[in-house]
Amino acid sequence: MRILFFIESLYRGGKERRAVELMHFLKQQNDIEVILVLTEDKIYYQSFLDLGIPIVILKRKRIKYDPSLFIKFYKCCRQYNPDLIHAWGKMTVFYAIPAKLIRRIPLISSMISDSVGRYARFSFDSFFFNIGIFLSDVILSNSKSGLSAYKIKTPKAKVILNGVNLERFQGKFDTISIREEFGISSEFILIMVASFTGYKDYDLFIETARETAKLRGDTTFLGVGDGPEWTRIQKRVKDENIKNVILTGMRDDIESLIAASDIGLLCTFNEGISNSIIEYMALGKPVISTDMTGGSKEIIINGETGFCVERSTEEVVAHIVMLLNNKSLRLTMGIKGKNRINYQFSIGRMGDEFLTVYKDILSAKSRK
Q: Would you give the DSSP letter of residue 151?
């Protein structure tokens, strides 16, 4: 089976990480060949480069919608003759349509990874998205809430939850060095791993840190990531003299940072399936998320592995204090969360589900 993956880049992001994890899984299968097609030469994941998967770069012109990619991608399909096209975004699905129709290659779309339903009804984005939905053979989302948000009710739609390589979370982590590096002397560390964008609520994160500090002086809040909002949030921390917040910037040692922490936070407006929450739980940390209507509730068992709470400072602080005051509850939630990830969110489970989709679609094609 030859699968042509089509994604804009392998830069940092949940969708990109999921694609990389899947390619790791597929590389281990004897009867599967993967070719990766990108429209940008950004590859953040060194582990992917180590796989030796062929990479084709179809350089996009400096315009948002580049019609030349229809022809470039079609020629790529003619050269490699894939059995399946697996496209990982609204525009890559759209650019793959001529190859799908003319060469009759089944098209799988993974373009739903949030639960916002963010496209305006009458817009180019909505047009491209809906054409992709109509012409895809299978539509994949990583959450039920994502399909609901985009009002996708077709039988072609399926949910495959994120999977992670559990080996990342095994072994011992040098938590003492983390504390020494950042000069942390407080008893407790609370961490939020998320991009600094308008989709994440870092304002609530620092407000929570400030209000928690008024109640107790034993906490440090780590904000891990970067993005267009980083400078503004850093300025706010400085201007408001919030002493228990450290913004680390982008880091490659996420596992060590989480291992050194006591509680995982996700202050957000809405989520699909959050890799950060999965990582917190995989390392045995209780979670507090402000995503009550999105995909977080498909990971967190509320009250057992963590809490999904209203997006308010008071609610987040109250649950932080509850966990900090109850070590037994923290540990119990952490253990239950780790067990849940091990059984429900492994890369093996995710890979097997994708493999089933691939085989089913090729079997259906052969019967026609």
A: T
Do 139 and 170 fall into the same domain?
Answer: no
Report the C-alpha gap between 191 and 198 in whole angstroms.
19
Give the domain range for residue 197: 166-344
Q: Where are the beta strands (DSSP E) in 211-323?
A: 219-224, 245-249, 263-266, 287-289, 306-308
One digit per residue, the tens of pLDDT, for the chain of length 368 reads 999 999 999 987 788 989 999 999 999 998 999 999 999 988 888 888 888 999 999 988 877 788 999 999 999 999 999 999 999 999 999 999 999 999 999 999 998 887 776 677 778 888 889 999 999 999 999 999 889 888 898 999 999 999 888 888 988 899 999 999 999 999 999 999 999 998 899 999 999 999 999 999 999 999 999 999 999 999 999 999 999 999 999 998 999 999 999 999 999 988 888 889 999 999 999 999 998 778 889 999 999 999 999 999 999 999 999 999 999 999 999 999 999 999 999 999 999 999 999 999 999 888 76
> Is residue 90 domain-shared with residue 72, that is, in the same domain?
yes
Does residue 256 share a domain with residue 245?
A: yes
CATH number, residue 105 = 3.40.50.2000
- Are 159 and 190 in a shared domain? no
Q: Are residues 7 and 154 in the same domain?
A: yes
Across-strand partners of 263? 190
Measured between its terminal Cα atoms, the distance across the chain in Å is 18
Structurally, the chain folds into a number of domains equal to 2
Alpha helices per DSSP H over the chain:
14-27, 46-49, 68-80, 90-103, 124-135, 144-149, 175-182, 202-215, 230-239, 254-259, 275-282, 313-324, 327-344, 347-367
Tokens 């940008």 — which residue? Answer: 40
Residues 238 and 330 in one domain: yes
The count of residues in the chain is 368
Q: Are residues 176 and 275 in the same domain?
A: yes
Residue bearing tokens 């050194």: 260
* Single pTM value for the model: 0.86
Do residue 172 and residue 159 come from a single domain?
no
Strand residues in 77-146 grouped as ranges (E): 84-87, 107-112, 138-141
